[in-house]
Amino acid sequence: MQEIKSHRERRTVEEHKDFIDFYLDQMEKTKNVPNSTYDEENMLHSVFDLFLGGSETTATTLRWALLYMVAYPDIQEKVQKELDAVLGSSHQIDYEDRKKLPYTNAVIHEIIRFSSIILITIPRQAVKDTTVLGYQVPKGTIIMANIDSTLFDPEYWETPHQFNPGHFLDKDGNFVIREAFLAFSAGHRVCLGEVMAKMELFIIFCSLLQTFKFTPPEGDKEINLSFVFGSTMKPHPYKLCAVLR
Ligand code: HEM
Fold it and tell me: Which residues bind heme (predicted)?
């Protein structure tokens, strides 16, 4: 509420630059529209949704990313070789670079698939009677799609239960996206932050691997890849060594 208040105060003098500024504009524009949903309460919930949906998910995926790199050192090494060969060690990573880094991009997609942090989608409700693949869905039915089942479907993935970046590479080593890659769901209510998440993951993951080699702490033999059940599936707390390359 304080943030909204300070936005209100400065918006006449400063250029609009963020979500709250534009939301306030929209409230202004629709103030005489009957039943408009643009009000302060809805803005608060929307900001909350963006923080909730936008930070926990990417942070958890990054924790899985580093754990997998420790668990699969040969894959880590291959990513670093590609980064060194294509970008060198001093290049500041840009999201556009993914086009020149097919193996790294495939590894990031495999991290998202294999960690499957959101097992089922947010509950949705049918707004009218309908039929899906021959099944009748009466108006009012709550629907939660099973994302996990698509990410591990043996009909669509060669080795579903194996961490295999090859799932996202063609025979010539080019990056390919897969139809069953539905980690961000699909349709009208597809994840709003899909591009932002992919961008953040790419930039942070590449920058970290460019700078550090990740290894288990000395003496640690077993790497626990099982998840802790929750709103997102997280790895168990773990330690690793980040060694400057
Ligand atoms: C690896 C990261 C992420 C994953 C795996 C992920 C996955 C998902 C999934 C599965 C849904 C449910 C869609 C449905 O119910 O059909 C969703 C919804 C949503 N996500 Fe993400 N998400 C990620 C990152 C983000 C980020 C970075 C943001 C925001 C900046 C974000 C914002 C949202 C919002 C607002 C919704 C609700 C969309 C709606 O109801 O229309 N997510 N996400």
Answer: 191
Query: Looking at residues 7-15, what average pLDDT do you find?
Result: 77
CATH of the domain at 223: 1.10.630.10
Q: Is 206 annotated as a binding residue?
A: no
Is any atom of ligand 1 closer than 6 Å to the C-beta of 232? no
pLDDT in tens, 71-102: 999 999 999 999 999 998 778 899 999 999 99
Angle between helices 40-71 and 194-211 (to 10 degrees): 40
Residue 35, in any domain of the structure: no
Q: Is 34 helix (H, G, I), strand (E, B) or coil?
A: coil
**Domain around 182:** 57-244
Output phi, psi for 137, to 5 deg: -120, 100
- Cβ of 182 closer than 6 Å to ligand 1, yes or no, is no
CA distance 178 to 105: 13
Instruction: Report the 10 Å Cβ neighbour count for 132.
Output: 9
Q: How many domains is the chain built from?
A: 1
Q: Is residue 43 one of the residues assigned to a domain?
A: no
What's the pLDDT score for residue 13?
65
To test the ligand 1 pocket, which listed residue (18, 191, 195) has its Cβ within 8 A of the most ligand atoms?
Answer: 191
Residue 49 lies in a domain: no
Ligand 1 in reach of 111 Cβ (< 6 A) = no
Percentages helix, strand, coil for the chain (3-state, rounded to 5) are: 45, 10, 45
